[in-house]
Amino acid sequence: MRALLLLAALGAVAAATTENFVGHQVLRIVPSSDAELQKVRELQELEHLQLDFWLSPRGLGDPVDIRVPFPSLQPLKAHLEANGVPYSIMIEDVQALVDLEQMQMLRRRRFMPFSTSTFDYTSYHTLDEIYAFMDLLVAENPNLVSKLEIGHTTENRPIYVLKFSKGGTNRPAIWIDTGIHSREWVTQASGVWFAKKVWADLTSPKGLANILDQMDIFLEIVTNPDGFVFTHTSNRMWRKTRSKHSGALCVGVDPNRNWDAGFGGSGASSNPCSETYRGPYANSEPEVQAIVDFVKSHGNIKAFISIHSYSQLLLYPYGYTTTAVPDKEELHQVAKEAVAALSSLYGTNYKYGSIITTIYQASGGTIDWTYNQGIKYSFTFELRDTGRYGFLLPASQIVPTAQETWKALEVIMAHTRGHLY
Amino acid sequence: MPGFRAALPAALLLLLLSSFPPAAAEQPPWPWTPGAMHALNPSDRHASRAAWTALHYSNYHEASPSTLRALRQVLKATVKIIPGLGVKYYLQFTTEGYINGENAGSCLATVLYLKKSPPEVYIKCAHTQDKKQIQEEDNKFYHYLHHQTKPIIANNIPDSHGNIDRAHLPLWGLAIAGSSYIMLEKSTENLGYFMAQVKAVKQRIRKDSAVEFEFIVLLHETPTQKIELCHMHLIWTLSPPLRVKYICTSDNHWLEDGSGQDYGSAAGLFHEKEGNF
After folding, report:
1. Which of A43, A223, A283, B106 has the fewest CB atoms within 10 Å, counting from its CB?
2. Which among A98, A116, A131 is the end of a domain?
3. Model ipTM?
């Protein structure tokens, strides 16, 4: 009883204001005996402590949450300890939480994320938002992440690639690109998630970190920026670039038919109005030329993964010919393991094989070119779904899609690292 | 619900086949002997394309937004070239509810791709849904539509982010059922379709017991990657058949080959009609 009076006196001296919550903590007590329950009930009598019961005492085993103003913290804790009443600190700094909430509200109103931890990975974003995200990611970890400008689009937008590297010079590298076909929105959204994932894994001791000890990762999130903007402003179903070649009645070239591999053969169209128009000549599209230049000048890319949607497939070369690639057995095995890893997460069903046997004949395709450049581990993904929503995949599926795809990417990256050539 | 038979009963088809004269020398596109049954890898894209053709048939003929099916997995597939007639696929596959994604049982189907007419389909599916429940859902929706005093108008189902308003789900279902007719007619061994989006839908209020809609739907064609815009007129009386009339961009060269254009002008059609209404 004397202790209680002492506590009350100390509390009376404390002049806690309730204007802000700096230093306030929320304590949790779970009474496990009648004596403890009684002690907690008594605390309610001490008005001078200005305790704010978020959860009032009820019965044994029912949690009691108390917001404690800063000046009352020490006296209260001492009192609880002296009476053998165990407690835990649920919220270390109430004001910080309030600040965060306000920031989040502001962010939602202004659509500008304050950090990559408040960025909304469960929604689709615009080009500006994704470019802002990239800058945030680099700013948060400038020693590990950098942004490279590899070229400009037809409409003069910069083309950016994120580089994740722990150092070294021109280390063997993994390339991942998303959004080459602009309407395939789950791919750019997954690319954003991958960027965050790579960054998060860089700071954790297991998994990816050991790949990054030997290799660099390049990630191009918006491979077709002009097309992407067009899907936001004008036509959600736009696939191609936005180039206007002389004499053409229609706009745009299929960037996945514009590479110099089987260019001009069956599996692409020569009609500018077609969705699979190959373009007037190979690499006519600056978006494609930019990657070609980058790959050639880097010279040490060992795995190249280009991501599309939809159909749920993992593919390796070739698309332009039925001739099997020399590394077919190995690529097939890697694909098999990658797909198994992907499915293990949510049971999503993928098929795999060469492009021409699994999907259709396609000439001038990205990974046919990269394979012929000597990048053995060249793969293309077709992400969710298999036709119900198609290109209009609900945003709620972005994160699960990215998560399962990442499992497959980890297999490919680990295999590459374990079989460097 | 009983499975539906193709226009030509299987027996009659067999009779027709056996009475065919020996085929003139014709180069089959496949490395398979005509007349013999060839097993296909269930992953073969031709198998899934044929399975979807069968589902377009079923989704159209059931005339029930609550019973739409999507392909889950092909279990078995065989193919047979019928010289002078076409190519016939024999399939066993699993399905899921188009709208709810839940297991909807397995189906057996045959799909005969002909040279100059739409494919002929026979399909029979196991039923996992409660018949009464399906009827109730369709009835509820039908009566909701039938009692509208102002015509329902909506755009972009799903929207760019893949969202569908709960209230629009049955409209989406009706559009899929109607589009399935279009997709069935257009499907070939080498061309497959999915309904990508309902760009616009407008109801026409009727005095009789039917409900009537004008749709603009976008169909995704593979492997061409083309987006076909189709204007579809649909009348539903709860029981089959669903009455569908349509015209698509490729049918009347409306928008040339579709690419390089956006759909603003076509969607504007509805707004014009609204003005005159």
Report:
1. B106
2. A98
3. 0.79
